[in-house]
Amino acid sequence: MQESIDMAELLGDLDFDPAALKAKYLEERDKRLRDDGNEQYVEVTAEFSHYVDDPYVEPGFSRAPLHDEVEVAIIGGGFGGLLMAARLREAGFDDIRMIEKAGDFGGTWYWNRYPGAMCDVESYCYLPLLEELDYMPKHKYSFAPEILQHSKRIARHYNLYENACLQTAITQLSWDAKDNRWIIETDRNDRMRARYVAMANGPLSRPKLPGIQGINDYKGHTFHTSRWDYNYTGGNSFGNLSGLKDKRVGIIGTGATAVQCIPHLGEWAKQLYVFQRTPSSIDERNNHDTDQAWAKSLEHGWQQKRMDNFNVLVSGGDQPEDLVADGWTDIMRNLTGIAAKLASRKLGRRLTKGERAELMELADYKKMNAVRARAQKIVNDEKTAELLQPWYRQFCKRPCFHDTYLPTFNRPNVTLVDTEGKGVTAITATSVIANGEEYPVDCIIFATGFEVGTGFSRRAGYDVEGKDGVMLSQKWSDGIQTLHGLHSHGFPNLLIMSNAQSAFTTNFPHAMDENARHMAYLLDTCRDRSIKQFEADLDAEQAWVQEIIGLSRFSEAFQSECTPGYYNNEGQPNPLSKQNASYGKGPIAFFDRMRAWREQGELAGLNYR
Question: Dihedral of CA 485/491/495/497: which sign?
Fold first, then answer.
Protein backbone atom coordinates (compact mmCIF):
# COMPACT_ATOMS: atom_id res chain seq x y z
CA MET A 1 0.00 0.00 0.00
CA GLN A 2 1.45 3.37 -1.03
CA GLU A 3 2.06 6.01 1.60
CA SER A 4 -0.39 8.90 1.31
CA ILE A 5 0.78 12.45 1.39
CA ASP A 6 -0.90 15.72 2.24
CA MET A 7 -0.43 17.76 -0.93
CA ALA A 8 -1.31 20.97 0.86
CA GLU A 9 1.53 20.30 3.30
CA LEU A 10 3.95 19.83 0.42
CA LEU A 11 3.20 23.31 -0.97
CA GLY A 12 3.77 24.92 2.41
CA ASP A 13 1.26 26.67 4.62
CA LEU A 14 -1.69 27.48 2.39
CA ASP A 15 -3.29 30.81 3.21
CA PHE A 16 -6.57 29.75 1.61
CA ASP A 17 -9.24 27.08 1.85
CA PRO A 18 -9.14 24.97 -1.35
CA ALA A 19 -12.77 23.87 -0.95
CA ALA A 20 -13.99 27.45 -0.53
CA LEU A 21 -11.93 28.57 -3.52
CA LYS A 22 -13.39 25.84 -5.73
CA ALA A 23 -16.88 26.85 -4.63
CA LYS A 24 -16.09 30.46 -5.58
CA TYR A 25 -14.87 29.33 -9.01
CA LEU A 26 -18.08 27.38 -9.61
CA GLU A 27 -20.20 30.31 -8.45
CA GLU A 28 -18.45 32.62 -10.92
CA ARG A 29 -18.79 30.02 -13.69
CA ASP A 30 -22.52 29.72 -13.11
CA LYS A 31 -22.97 33.48 -13.61
CA ARG A 32 -21.61 33.14 -17.13
CA LEU A 33 -23.28 29.97 -18.39
CA ARG A 34 -25.59 30.52 -21.38
CA ASP A 35 -27.91 28.16 -23.17
CA ASP A 36 -26.88 29.45 -26.60
CA GLY A 37 -23.14 28.67 -26.29
CA ASN A 38 -21.39 29.46 -29.57
CA GLU A 39 -24.70 30.62 -31.05
CA GLN A 40 -24.35 33.83 -29.05
CA TYR A 41 -22.04 35.03 -31.84
CA VAL A 42 -23.29 36.12 -35.26
CA GLU A 43 -21.60 35.15 -38.51
CA VAL A 44 -19.88 38.04 -40.30
CA THR A 45 -21.92 37.77 -43.49
CA ALA A 46 -24.71 39.80 -45.11
CA GLU A 47 -25.19 43.00 -43.09
CA PHE A 48 -22.11 42.16 -41.02
CA SER A 49 -19.83 41.44 -43.98
CA HIS A 50 -18.03 44.80 -43.75
CA TYR A 51 -16.39 43.55 -40.55
CA VAL A 52 -14.23 41.20 -42.66
CA ASP A 53 -13.37 43.73 -45.37
CA ASP A 54 -9.65 44.42 -45.74
CA PRO A 55 -8.97 48.02 -44.65
CA TYR A 56 -5.26 47.76 -45.44
CA VAL A 57 -5.48 47.63 -49.25
CA GLU A 58 -6.38 50.20 -51.86
CA PRO A 59 -9.84 49.61 -53.35
CA GLY A 60 -10.29 48.62 -56.96
CA PHE A 61 -7.76 45.79 -57.20
CA SER A 62 -8.36 43.54 -60.20
CA ARG A 63 -6.48 41.01 -62.31
CA ALA A 64 -7.23 38.62 -65.13
CA PRO A 65 -8.65 35.22 -64.02
CA LEU A 66 -6.17 32.34 -63.96
CA HIS A 67 -6.89 29.01 -65.64
CA ASP A 68 -3.41 27.54 -65.37
CA GLU A 69 -1.80 24.70 -63.40
CA VAL A 70 0.76 24.56 -60.62
CA GLU A 71 2.42 21.68 -58.83
CA VAL A 72 1.66 22.85 -55.28
CA ALA A 73 -0.99 25.34 -54.19
CA ILE A 74 -0.79 26.54 -50.59
CA ILE A 75 -3.90 28.16 -49.14
CA GLY A 76 -2.98 30.70 -46.49
CA GLY A 77 -0.13 33.18 -46.21
CA GLY A 78 0.43 33.06 -42.47
CA PHE A 79 3.24 31.25 -40.68
CA GLY A 80 1.77 27.83 -41.56
CA GLY A 81 1.71 28.54 -45.29
CA LEU A 82 5.06 30.32 -45.22
CA LEU A 83 6.74 27.43 -43.42
CA MET A 84 5.19 24.92 -45.80
CA ALA A 85 6.48 26.89 -48.78
CA ALA A 86 9.91 27.41 -47.23
CA ARG A 87 10.45 23.71 -46.55
CA LEU A 88 9.23 22.82 -50.05
CA ARG A 89 11.63 25.34 -51.58
CA GLU A 90 14.46 23.80 -49.58
CA ALA A 91 13.39 20.39 -50.95
CA GLY A 92 13.71 21.72 -54.50
CA PHE A 93 10.09 22.51 -55.39
CA ASP A 94 9.87 25.51 -57.71
CA ASP A 95 6.27 25.49 -58.94
CA ILE A 96 4.47 26.80 -55.83
CA ARG A 97 1.52 29.18 -55.67
CA MET A 98 0.41 30.90 -52.48
CA ILE A 99 -3.27 31.86 -52.31
CA GLU A 100 -4.23 34.39 -49.65
CA LYS A 101 -7.36 36.49 -49.17
CA ALA A 102 -5.43 39.29 -47.47
CA GLY A 103 -3.41 41.89 -49.34
CA ASP A 104 -0.08 40.44 -48.21
CA PHE A 105 1.57 37.68 -46.22
CA GLY A 106 1.34 37.53 -42.43
CA GLY A 107 -1.89 35.70 -41.61
CA THR A 108 -3.03 36.70 -38.12
CA TRP A 109 -0.29 39.31 -38.07
CA TYR A 110 -1.59 40.87 -41.27
CA TRP A 111 -4.99 41.42 -39.68
CA ASN A 112 -3.99 42.16 -36.10
CA ARG A 113 -2.59 45.67 -36.37
CA TYR A 114 -4.35 47.07 -33.34
CA PRO A 115 -2.26 49.33 -31.09
CA GLY A 116 -0.07 47.36 -28.72
CA ALA A 117 -0.35 44.08 -30.64
CA MET A 118 2.56 41.79 -29.82
CA CYS A 119 3.36 38.10 -29.51
CA ASP A 120 3.02 36.55 -26.06
CA VAL A 121 5.53 33.77 -26.73
CA GLU A 122 9.21 34.76 -26.75
CA SER A 123 10.10 36.09 -30.21
CA TYR A 124 13.36 34.11 -30.43
CA CYS A 125 11.18 30.97 -30.40
CA TYR A 126 8.02 32.32 -32.00
CA LEU A 127 9.29 33.99 -35.16
CA PRO A 128 10.15 31.15 -37.54
CA LEU A 129 13.24 30.74 -39.71
CA LEU A 130 15.38 33.26 -37.83
CA GLU A 131 18.63 31.43 -38.56
CA GLU A 132 17.69 30.75 -42.16
CA LEU A 133 17.12 34.47 -42.71
CA ASP A 134 19.92 35.62 -40.38
CA TYR A 135 17.53 37.85 -38.47
CA MET A 136 17.29 38.68 -34.79
CA PRO A 137 14.09 40.24 -33.32
CA LYS A 138 14.38 43.62 -31.65
CA HIS A 139 12.65 42.61 -28.41
CA LYS A 140 12.12 39.52 -26.31
CA TYR A 141 8.44 39.81 -27.30
CA SER A 142 8.06 41.25 -30.78
CA PHE A 143 5.46 43.86 -31.65
CA ALA A 144 3.06 43.23 -34.52
CA PRO A 145 4.74 45.49 -37.14
CA GLU A 146 8.00 43.57 -36.81
CA ILE A 147 6.21 40.23 -37.07
CA LEU A 148 4.38 41.38 -40.20
CA GLN A 149 7.64 42.56 -41.74
CA HIS A 150 9.29 39.25 -40.87
CA SER A 151 6.45 37.42 -42.65
CA LYS A 152 7.11 39.51 -45.76
CA ARG A 153 10.85 38.89 -45.35
CA ILE A 154 10.23 35.12 -45.42
CA ALA A 155 8.11 35.49 -48.57
CA ARG A 156 10.84 37.50 -50.30
CA HIS A 157 13.62 35.17 -49.18
CA TYR A 158 11.85 32.12 -50.62
CA ASN A 159 10.58 33.97 -53.70
CA LEU A 160 6.91 33.47 -52.87
CA TYR A 161 5.57 36.76 -54.23
CA GLU A 162 6.33 35.87 -57.85
CA ASN A 163 3.50 33.38 -58.35
CA ALA A 164 1.23 34.42 -55.45
CA CYS A 165 -2.48 35.21 -55.65
CA LEU A 166 -3.08 37.84 -52.95
CA GLN A 167 -6.46 39.46 -52.29
CA THR A 168 -7.91 36.14 -53.47
CA ALA A 169 -10.40 34.02 -51.51
CA ILE A 170 -11.10 30.36 -52.26
CA THR A 171 -14.75 29.65 -53.04
CA GLN A 172 -14.51 25.94 -53.85
CA LEU A 173 -11.89 23.20 -53.90
CA SER A 174 -12.78 20.08 -55.93
CA TRP A 175 -10.94 16.85 -56.81
CA ASP A 176 -10.83 15.91 -60.50
CA ALA A 177 -10.45 12.12 -60.44
CA LYS A 178 -9.94 11.93 -64.21
CA ASP A 179 -6.76 14.04 -64.19
CA ASN A 180 -5.69 13.56 -60.55
CA ARG A 181 -5.74 17.31 -59.97
CA TRP A 182 -7.40 19.73 -57.60
CA ILE A 183 -9.57 22.42 -59.19
CA ILE A 184 -9.35 25.67 -57.26
CA GLU A 185 -12.08 28.27 -57.76
CA THR A 186 -11.84 31.76 -56.29
CA ASP A 187 -13.70 35.03 -55.99
CA ARG A 188 -11.45 36.35 -58.81
CA ASN A 189 -13.08 33.91 -61.25
CA ASP A 190 -9.98 31.72 -61.21
CA ARG A 191 -10.24 28.06 -62.07
CA MET A 192 -6.68 26.92 -61.54
CA ARG A 193 -5.44 23.37 -61.11
CA ALA A 194 -2.87 21.85 -58.76
CA ARG A 195 -1.30 18.42 -58.27
CA TYR A 196 -1.09 19.01 -54.51
CA VAL A 197 -2.97 21.39 -52.22
CA ALA A 198 -1.89 22.32 -48.71
CA MET A 199 -4.50 24.01 -46.51
CA ALA A 200 -2.89 26.37 -44.02
CA ASN A 201 -5.92 28.54 -43.29
CA GLY A 202 -5.03 28.94 -39.65
CA PRO A 203 -7.29 28.65 -36.59
CA LEU A 204 -7.60 32.41 -35.98
CA SER A 205 -8.66 34.10 -39.19
CA ARG A 206 -12.39 34.83 -39.20
CA PRO A 207 -13.65 37.55 -36.81
CA LYS A 208 -16.68 36.86 -34.67
CA LEU A 209 -19.24 39.33 -33.36
CA PRO A 210 -21.52 39.08 -30.33
CA GLY A 211 -25.19 38.72 -31.18
CA ILE A 212 -26.18 41.69 -29.04
CA GLN A 213 -29.69 43.01 -29.40
CA GLY A 214 -29.68 46.17 -31.53
CA ILE A 215 -26.15 45.71 -32.87
CA ASN A 216 -27.33 47.01 -36.26
CA ASP A 217 -29.14 50.00 -34.74
CA TYR A 218 -25.99 51.79 -33.65
CA LYS A 219 -25.32 54.98 -35.63
CA GLY A 220 -21.85 55.74 -34.33
CA HIS A 221 -18.54 54.31 -35.56
CA THR A 222 -17.70 50.61 -35.09
CA PHE A 223 -14.96 48.19 -36.07
CA HIS A 224 -13.43 44.87 -35.00
CA THR A 225 -9.93 44.85 -33.49
CA SER A 226 -8.69 42.66 -36.35
CA ARG A 227 -9.68 45.43 -38.78
CA TRP A 228 -8.47 48.43 -36.78
CA ASP A 229 -9.58 51.75 -38.25
CA TYR A 230 -6.64 54.14 -37.91
CA ASN A 231 -8.42 56.61 -40.18
CA TYR A 232 -10.78 57.12 -37.25
CA THR A 233 -8.48 56.68 -34.24
CA GLY A 234 -5.32 58.21 -35.68
CA GLY A 235 -1.94 56.82 -34.74
CA ASN A 236 -0.50 53.40 -35.56
CA SER A 237 0.37 50.08 -33.95
CA PHE A 238 2.52 51.85 -31.38
CA GLY A 239 -0.22 54.21 -30.18
CA ASN A 240 -0.65 57.99 -30.58
CA LEU A 241 -4.41 57.59 -31.13
CA SER A 242 -4.92 61.37 -31.33
CA GLY A 243 -8.21 61.00 -33.19
CA LEU A 244 -9.83 59.82 -29.96
CA LYS A 245 -9.03 62.89 -27.85
CA ASP A 246 -12.63 64.09 -28.02
CA LYS A 247 -14.28 60.68 -28.31
CA ARG A 248 -16.19 58.47 -25.89
CA VAL A 249 -15.13 54.91 -26.71
CA GLY A 250 -16.63 51.60 -25.65
CA ILE A 251 -14.72 48.36 -26.07
CA ILE A 252 -16.52 45.03 -25.73
CA GLY A 253 -14.28 42.16 -24.67
CA THR A 254 -11.38 41.77 -22.25
CA GLY A 255 -9.41 38.87 -23.74
CA ALA A 256 -5.83 38.80 -24.99
CA THR A 257 -6.39 41.40 -27.73
CA ALA A 258 -8.20 43.85 -25.47
CA VAL A 259 -5.49 43.52 -22.84
CA GLN A 260 -2.95 44.83 -25.36
CA CYS A 261 -4.96 47.66 -26.94
CA ILE A 262 -6.84 49.02 -23.89
CA PRO A 263 -3.76 50.80 -22.46
CA HIS A 264 -3.52 52.84 -25.69
CA LEU A 265 -7.25 53.55 -25.76
CA GLY A 266 -7.11 54.64 -22.15
CA GLU A 267 -4.21 56.97 -22.85
CA TRP A 268 -5.93 58.80 -25.73
CA ALA A 269 -9.71 58.55 -25.46
CA LYS A 270 -11.67 61.32 -23.79
CA GLN A 271 -13.61 58.56 -22.04
CA LEU A 272 -13.12 54.80 -22.26
CA TYR A 273 -15.70 52.27 -21.12
CA VAL A 274 -14.38 48.72 -20.86
CA PHE A 275 -17.30 46.26 -20.94
CA GLN A 276 -16.21 43.10 -19.16
CA ARG A 277 -17.94 39.74 -18.90
CA THR A 278 -14.95 37.76 -17.59
CA PRO A 279 -11.61 39.25 -16.48
CA SER A 280 -8.40 37.88 -17.94
CA SER A 281 -5.53 36.51 -15.91
CA ILE A 282 -2.82 39.20 -16.10
CA ASP A 283 0.72 38.29 -15.06
CA GLU A 284 3.97 40.18 -15.59
CA ARG A 285 5.36 40.60 -19.12
CA ASN A 286 8.77 42.19 -18.52
CA ASN A 287 9.56 42.84 -22.16
CA HIS A 288 12.99 44.23 -23.04
CA ASP A 289 15.29 44.97 -25.93
CA THR A 290 17.36 42.13 -27.33
CA ASP A 291 20.81 41.90 -25.77
CA GLN A 292 23.08 42.31 -28.79
CA ALA A 293 26.09 40.77 -27.04
CA TRP A 294 23.99 37.68 -26.29
CA ALA A 295 22.73 37.59 -29.88
CA LYS A 296 26.27 37.67 -31.26
CA SER A 297 27.33 34.83 -28.95
CA LEU A 298 24.76 32.36 -30.30
CA GLU A 299 26.04 29.30 -32.12
CA HIS A 300 24.59 27.49 -35.12
CA GLY A 301 21.36 25.65 -34.26
CA TRP A 302 20.51 28.00 -31.41
CA GLN A 303 16.87 28.58 -32.39
CA GLN A 304 15.94 24.91 -32.68
CA LYS A 305 17.68 24.24 -29.37
CA ARG A 306 15.76 27.09 -27.74
CA MET A 307 12.41 25.98 -29.20
CA ASP A 308 12.99 22.41 -28.03
CA ASN A 309 13.95 23.58 -24.55
CA PHE A 310 10.82 25.73 -24.30
CA ASN A 311 8.62 22.98 -25.69
CA VAL A 312 9.84 20.42 -23.14
CA LEU A 313 9.23 22.78 -20.23
CA VAL A 314 5.75 23.92 -21.27
CA SER A 315 4.83 20.29 -22.00
CA GLY A 316 5.46 19.37 -18.37
CA GLY A 317 8.97 18.00 -18.77
CA ASP A 318 12.21 19.06 -17.16
CA GLN A 319 15.40 20.61 -18.49
CA PRO A 320 18.72 21.33 -16.77
CA GLU A 321 18.34 24.98 -17.83
CA ASP A 322 15.31 27.14 -18.61
CA LEU A 323 16.58 29.07 -21.64
CA VAL A 324 13.46 31.20 -22.07
CA ALA A 325 12.59 31.75 -18.40
CA ASP A 326 9.30 33.57 -18.85
CA GLY A 327 5.72 33.44 -17.62
CA TRP A 328 4.89 30.35 -19.64
CA THR A 329 7.76 28.23 -18.34
CA ASP A 330 7.20 29.53 -14.81
CA ILE A 331 3.55 28.44 -14.90
CA MET A 332 4.28 24.95 -16.22
CA ARG A 333 7.37 24.30 -14.11
CA ASN A 334 5.45 25.16 -10.96
CA LEU A 335 2.27 23.32 -11.95
CA THR A 336 3.74 20.14 -13.36
CA GLY A 337 7.47 20.16 -12.80
CA ILE A 338 9.03 21.40 -9.58
CA ALA A 339 6.15 20.54 -7.23
CA ALA A 340 5.78 17.02 -8.61
CA LYS A 341 9.53 16.43 -8.46
CA LEU A 342 9.68 17.51 -4.80
CA ALA A 343 6.76 15.26 -3.90
CA SER A 344 8.34 12.27 -5.66
CA ARG A 345 11.62 12.79 -3.82
CA LYS A 346 9.83 12.99 -0.51
CA LEU A 347 7.90 9.78 -1.15
CA GLY A 348 10.69 7.95 -2.91
CA ARG A 349 8.32 7.07 -5.75
CA ARG A 350 6.39 8.56 -8.62
CA LEU A 351 3.12 10.28 -7.84
CA THR A 352 -0.07 8.51 -8.69
CA LYS A 353 -2.33 10.10 -11.29
CA GLY A 354 -4.72 11.24 -8.56
CA GLU A 355 -1.94 12.72 -6.42
CA ARG A 356 -0.51 14.58 -9.38
CA ALA A 357 -3.94 16.01 -10.26
CA GLU A 358 -4.49 17.15 -6.67
CA LEU A 359 -1.05 18.71 -6.53
CA MET A 360 -1.62 20.56 -9.80
CA GLU A 361 -4.95 21.88 -8.58
CA LEU A 362 -3.44 23.25 -5.38
CA ALA A 363 -0.47 24.75 -7.22
CA ASP A 364 -2.94 26.30 -9.67
CA TYR A 365 -4.93 27.85 -6.82
CA LYS A 366 -1.74 29.26 -5.35
CA LYS A 367 -0.62 30.74 -8.67
CA MET A 368 -3.99 32.32 -9.39
CA ASN A 369 -4.07 33.81 -5.90
CA ALA A 370 -0.81 35.55 -6.82
CA VAL A 371 -2.38 36.82 -10.06
CA ARG A 372 -5.36 38.18 -8.13
CA ALA A 373 -3.07 39.76 -5.52
CA ARG A 374 -1.23 41.54 -8.34
CA ALA A 375 -4.48 43.16 -9.48
CA GLN A 376 -5.20 44.24 -5.91
CA LYS A 377 -1.75 45.75 -5.57
CA ILE A 378 -1.73 47.67 -8.86
CA VAL A 379 -5.29 49.00 -9.15
CA ASN A 380 -6.01 51.82 -6.72
CA ASP A 381 -9.79 51.58 -6.51
CA GLU A 382 -10.63 48.63 -4.29
CA LYS A 383 -13.88 47.76 -6.07
CA THR A 384 -12.32 47.94 -9.54
CA ALA A 385 -9.39 45.84 -8.39
CA GLU A 386 -11.80 43.21 -7.10
CA LEU A 387 -13.70 43.12 -10.41
CA LEU A 388 -10.46 42.61 -12.36
CA GLN A 389 -9.59 39.45 -10.46
CA PRO A 390 -10.07 36.20 -12.42
CA TRP A 391 -11.85 33.40 -10.57
CA TYR A 392 -11.00 30.25 -12.53
CA ARG A 393 -8.16 27.77 -13.05
CA GLN A 394 -5.08 28.99 -14.93
CA PHE A 395 -5.80 27.25 -18.24
CA CYS A 396 -9.55 27.78 -18.41
CA LYS A 397 -8.61 30.77 -20.57
CA ARG A 398 -5.40 31.76 -22.33
CA PRO A 399 -3.14 33.40 -19.71
CA CYS A 400 -2.18 36.99 -20.47
CA PHE A 401 1.02 38.83 -19.63
CA HIS A 402 1.07 42.63 -19.60
CA ASP A 403 2.64 45.42 -17.58
CA THR A 404 0.38 48.41 -18.39
CA TYR A 405 -3.12 46.90 -18.68
CA LEU A 406 -3.98 46.94 -14.97
CA PRO A 407 -2.50 50.45 -14.34
CA THR A 408 -4.78 51.77 -17.11
CA PHE A 409 -7.72 51.43 -14.73
CA ASN A 410 -6.12 54.03 -12.47
CA ARG A 411 -6.77 56.68 -15.14
CA PRO A 412 -9.73 58.99 -14.33
CA ASN A 413 -11.08 58.68 -17.90
CA VAL A 414 -11.24 54.86 -17.83
CA THR A 415 -14.31 53.09 -16.44
CA LEU A 416 -14.58 49.34 -16.00
CA VAL A 417 -18.17 48.23 -16.63
CA ASP A 418 -18.33 44.75 -15.17
CA THR A 419 -21.48 42.95 -16.32
CA GLU A 420 -21.43 40.26 -13.62
CA GLY A 421 -20.85 37.62 -16.26
CA LYS A 422 -23.90 38.53 -18.34
CA GLY A 423 -22.26 40.63 -21.04
CA VAL A 424 -23.66 43.72 -22.73
CA THR A 425 -27.48 43.71 -22.75
CA ALA A 426 -28.21 45.81 -25.83
CA ILE A 427 -26.96 48.48 -28.18
CA THR A 428 -29.02 51.50 -29.19
CA ALA A 429 -28.45 54.16 -31.85
CA THR A 430 -26.12 56.03 -29.50
CA SER A 431 -25.28 53.85 -26.52
CA VAL A 432 -24.25 50.56 -25.01
CA ILE A 433 -26.54 49.18 -22.32
CA ALA A 434 -25.16 47.03 -19.51
CA ASN A 435 -26.51 46.28 -16.02
CA GLY A 436 -29.57 48.36 -16.87
CA GLU A 437 -27.46 51.48 -17.38
CA GLU A 438 -26.93 53.37 -20.63
CA TYR A 439 -23.43 54.42 -21.70
CA PRO A 440 -23.41 56.96 -24.58
CA VAL A 441 -20.42 56.35 -26.86
CA ASP A 442 -19.10 57.75 -30.14
CA CYS A 443 -17.37 54.51 -31.11
CA ILE A 444 -17.75 50.81 -30.29
CA ILE A 445 -14.76 48.50 -30.73
CA PHE A 446 -15.42 44.76 -30.78
CA ALA A 447 -12.53 42.85 -29.17
CA THR A 448 -14.47 39.61 -29.46
CA GLY A 449 -11.87 37.39 -31.11
CA PHE A 450 -12.08 34.86 -33.92
CA GLU A 451 -14.34 31.93 -34.67
CA VAL A 452 -12.94 28.73 -33.17
CA GLY A 453 -15.76 26.30 -32.39
CA THR A 454 -17.70 26.67 -35.63
CA GLY A 455 -17.65 24.24 -38.58
CA PHE A 456 -14.74 23.96 -41.01
CA SER A 457 -16.44 25.48 -44.07
CA ARG A 458 -17.77 28.45 -42.09
CA ARG A 459 -14.34 29.27 -40.67
CA ALA A 460 -12.48 28.66 -43.92
CA GLY A 461 -15.04 30.37 -46.15
CA TYR A 462 -15.11 27.44 -48.60
CA ASP A 463 -15.72 23.70 -48.69
CA VAL A 464 -13.67 20.84 -50.16
CA GLU A 465 -15.18 18.27 -52.52
CA GLY A 466 -13.23 15.03 -52.55
CA LYS A 467 -13.70 11.73 -54.34
CA ASP A 468 -17.25 10.69 -55.28
CA GLY A 469 -18.56 14.17 -54.45
CA VAL A 470 -18.04 13.83 -50.68
CA MET A 471 -17.65 17.22 -48.97
CA LEU A 472 -15.09 17.64 -46.20
CA SER A 473 -17.62 19.47 -44.02
CA GLN A 474 -19.97 16.50 -44.47
CA LYS A 475 -17.29 13.94 -43.61
CA TRP A 476 -16.25 15.91 -40.53
CA SER A 477 -19.77 16.73 -39.34
CA ASP A 478 -19.50 14.02 -36.67
CA GLY A 479 -15.90 14.86 -35.78
CA ILE A 480 -12.59 15.34 -37.53
CA GLN A 481 -11.26 12.23 -39.29
CA THR A 482 -7.61 12.22 -40.34
CA LEU A 483 -4.39 10.27 -40.34
CA HIS A 484 -1.83 12.11 -38.20
CA GLY A 485 -3.97 15.25 -38.50
CA LEU A 486 -2.44 15.73 -41.96
CA HIS A 487 -4.48 13.59 -44.40
CA SER A 488 -8.12 12.58 -44.75
CA HIS A 489 -9.36 9.51 -46.63
CA GLY A 490 -11.20 10.40 -49.83
CA PHE A 491 -9.23 13.60 -50.31
CA PRO A 492 -6.10 12.63 -52.31
CA ASN A 493 -3.01 14.82 -52.47
CA LEU A 494 -4.51 17.13 -49.84
CA LEU A 495 -2.36 18.25 -46.92
CA ILE A 496 -3.87 19.80 -43.78
CA MET A 497 -1.96 22.16 -41.50
CA SER A 498 -3.76 22.01 -38.15
CA ASN A 499 -3.32 21.06 -34.50
CA ALA A 500 -6.42 18.84 -34.52
CA GLN A 501 -5.36 15.17 -34.22
CA SER A 502 -1.81 16.47 -34.60
CA ALA A 503 0.56 18.29 -32.25
CA PHE A 504 -0.40 21.28 -30.13
CA THR A 505 2.27 23.47 -28.61
CA THR A 506 2.24 26.76 -26.73
CA ASN A 507 4.64 27.96 -29.42
CA PHE A 508 2.34 27.18 -32.35
CA PRO A 509 4.89 27.94 -35.15
CA HIS A 510 7.10 25.15 -33.76
CA ALA A 511 4.37 22.57 -34.44
CA MET A 512 3.65 24.10 -37.85
CA ASP A 513 7.32 23.83 -38.79
CA GLU A 514 7.46 20.18 -37.78
CA ASN A 515 4.40 19.46 -39.93
CA ALA A 516 5.84 21.48 -42.81
CA ARG A 517 9.05 19.44 -42.73
CA HIS A 518 7.00 16.24 -42.68
CA MET A 519 4.88 17.33 -45.64
CA ALA A 520 7.95 18.40 -47.61
CA TYR A 521 9.45 14.95 -47.00
CA LEU A 522 6.26 13.31 -48.26
CA LEU A 523 6.06 15.32 -51.48
CA ASP A 524 9.78 14.87 -52.08
CA THR A 525 9.33 11.10 -51.65
CA CYS A 526 6.40 11.10 -54.07
CA ARG A 527 8.56 12.87 -56.63
CA ASP A 528 11.46 10.44 -56.18
CA ARG A 529 9.23 7.37 -56.43
CA SER A 530 7.02 8.76 -59.22
CA ILE A 531 3.94 8.54 -56.98
CA LYS A 532 1.07 10.41 -58.61
CA GLN A 533 -1.55 10.13 -55.89
CA PHE A 534 -1.69 9.41 -52.16
CA GLU A 535 -4.39 9.49 -49.50
CA ALA A 536 -5.01 8.13 -46.04
CA ASP A 537 -5.96 4.46 -45.89
CA LEU A 538 -9.43 4.22 -44.34
CA ASP A 539 -8.45 1.58 -41.76
CA ALA A 540 -5.33 3.52 -40.77
CA GLU A 541 -7.37 6.71 -40.47
CA GLN A 542 -10.00 5.08 -38.27
CA ALA A 543 -7.29 3.57 -36.09
CA TRP A 544 -5.68 7.00 -35.69
CA VAL A 545 -9.01 8.59 -34.75
CA GLN A 546 -9.56 5.94 -32.10
CA GLU A 547 -6.03 6.46 -30.80
CA ILE A 548 -6.64 10.20 -30.54
CA ILE A 549 -9.85 9.56 -28.58
CA GLY A 550 -8.13 7.03 -26.33
CA LEU A 551 -5.17 9.32 -25.60
CA SER A 552 -7.15 12.52 -25.22
CA ARG A 553 -6.18 14.59 -22.23
CA PHE A 554 -9.43 16.47 -22.52
CA SER A 555 -10.88 16.46 -19.02
CA GLU A 556 -14.62 16.86 -19.02
CA ALA A 557 -14.50 17.50 -15.28
CA PHE A 558 -11.90 20.26 -15.62
CA GLN A 559 -13.62 21.90 -18.59
CA SER A 560 -17.06 21.72 -17.00
CA GLU A 561 -15.75 23.63 -13.98
CA CYS A 562 -14.20 26.35 -16.15
CA THR A 563 -15.76 29.69 -16.87
CA PRO A 564 -17.19 29.68 -20.42
CA GLY A 565 -14.87 30.55 -23.31
CA TYR A 566 -13.62 29.13 -26.59
CA TYR A 567 -11.42 26.64 -24.73
CA ASN A 568 -14.50 24.76 -23.48
CA ASN A 569 -16.97 25.50 -26.28
CA GLU A 570 -18.51 28.40 -24.33
CA GLY A 571 -19.41 26.09 -21.45
CA GLN A 572 -21.44 23.70 -23.61
CA PRO A 573 -20.64 19.96 -23.42
CA ASN A 574 -19.12 18.88 -26.73
CA PRO A 575 -19.14 15.13 -27.42
CA LEU A 576 -16.52 15.66 -30.14
CA SER A 577 -13.93 17.30 -27.91
CA LYS A 578 -11.88 14.13 -27.50
CA GLN A 579 -12.00 13.25 -31.19
CA ASN A 580 -11.06 16.77 -32.30
CA ALA A 581 -8.25 17.03 -29.77
CA SER A 582 -4.54 17.15 -30.42
CA TYR A 583 -2.23 14.16 -29.88
CA GLY A 584 -2.65 13.20 -26.23
CA LYS A 585 0.94 12.18 -25.51
CA GLY A 586 2.04 15.72 -26.26
CA PRO A 587 4.00 17.43 -29.02
CA ILE A 588 7.37 15.86 -28.25
CA ALA A 589 5.97 12.35 -28.61
CA PHE A 590 4.16 13.36 -31.80
CA PHE A 591 7.29 14.87 -33.35
CA ASP A 592 9.25 11.72 -32.47
CA ARG A 593 6.57 9.52 -33.95
CA MET A 594 6.49 11.43 -37.22
CA ARG A 595 10.28 11.36 -37.38
CA ALA A 596 10.24 7.58 -36.95
CA TRP A 597 7.57 7.32 -39.67
CA ARG A 598 9.83 9.18 -42.08
CA GLU A 599 12.87 7.11 -41.16
CA GLN A 600 10.98 3.89 -41.87
CA GLY A 601 10.30 5.22 -45.36
CA GLU A 602 7.27 3.01 -46.00
CA LEU A 603 4.61 5.75 -46.07
CA ALA A 604 2.67 3.62 -43.61
CA GLY A 605 -1.04 4.31 -43.48
CA LEU A 606 -1.13 5.91 -46.93
CA ASN A 607 -2.50 4.36 -50.11
CA TYR A 608 -0.53 5.54 -53.11
CA ARG A 609 0.04 4.78 -56.77
Answer: negative
